[in-house]
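Supplementary Methods, section 5.1.

A reviewer requested that the exact input to the structure prediction be made available. We therefore reproduce it here, unchanged from the version used in the analyses.
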Amino acid sequence: MTSRDAALEVVRKLRDAGFEAFFAGGCVRDRLLGREPGDHDVATNAIPDQVQKLFRRTVAVGKQFGVIMVLVKDRQVEVATFRADAKYTDGRHPDSVTFSDLKSDVLRRDFTINGMMEDPVAGTVMDLVGGNADLQARLIRAIGDPDLRFDEDRLRMLRAVRFAAQLGFEIESSTLAAVRRRAAEVSSVSRERVREELEKILVSADPVRGLDLLRATGLLHPVLPAAATLPDDRWKRTVRVVEALTRRPFVLALAALLHDAGRPAAGTAARDLKLSNEERERVVWLVARYADPPRAASMRPSEWKPLLAHPGAPDLLELHRAIQTADGAPLDAYTLLTGYLARPDLDPPRLITGDDLLALGVPRGPRIGEILQTVREAQLNGEVANAEEARAMAARLLGGP
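The structure derived from this sequence is encoded token-by-token as follows.
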């Protein structure tokens, strides 16, 4: 069952019960743009209790705001009651909502292109805010007063930039002016929500447009201070690096954006954006090691083998390739290391352990780690080939100074 089929089933059942029901928001926009919607939301005049009574499988994901998730086979359809919102004291949620009618519901939404509703049975679109005209003009325009829309939810400023990057649209002048005036207020938005929008910008069809808009509007500083403080020439180079990536999973794209800011700044940014421990460690590792690949020709195996054995090695090589491409530099090291990447001997089992050294009479302490590391480097360099040779080397090291 497709997302549209599931939502259409919900619409039909609501209408059969005497309620109004329409497709709403992004799915209408995407269909008019010839894009496949990721999901289909339904707006209705049925209140949450009525929705839950009508459908057997539901989840009250935001009942106080009129939102019920209806489960249809393997699909989830968000069903929201038409509403009008009271004041937004926290800059995210209305203090209270009043269930209302279709027009009131449309007028409280963010942008005109997201304010259209579709009758999926008749195949017609209801457009009370000029959304279709803005689609044709390729404009992101706030519904009504942009300051009021951003008062209600400050994240909408980042959403404007994200839609511009995803769709290749411009931000309408009065909406853009309001973003510039109020950009600093994004610092009050939860970092999880900020991270989500930044990720969508970086993996969008046109991340350069999104990044340049973030910087031009002043949004970049509350979102990613480490990148915002880069001088103009380094910023332009950084954007070229992001643009040169042939794939842009979020962690790699973020590392590309932060690579010139330095390891400490990258770690701070990753923590601030609430990345998982694994994601944060990967970003920091990429930023710390991006300068290693250019030394490939002079590296000993004990240097490049651990580098390429790291699970982040494919991302590191892609970051290096993007940097070289952005700088117009040769890709010799990339070609060399990419060839090495498939070798089966990057991370062979260690030939000796700490227990082996204790048996040789090495006292517990840092000396054990030093000897193990020296023997490991010799192993990777092909200087010792088996456990017997490794133990002999350790014994020689013990006899040294």
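The two ends are 73 Å apart (CA to CA). These observations are discussed further in the main text.
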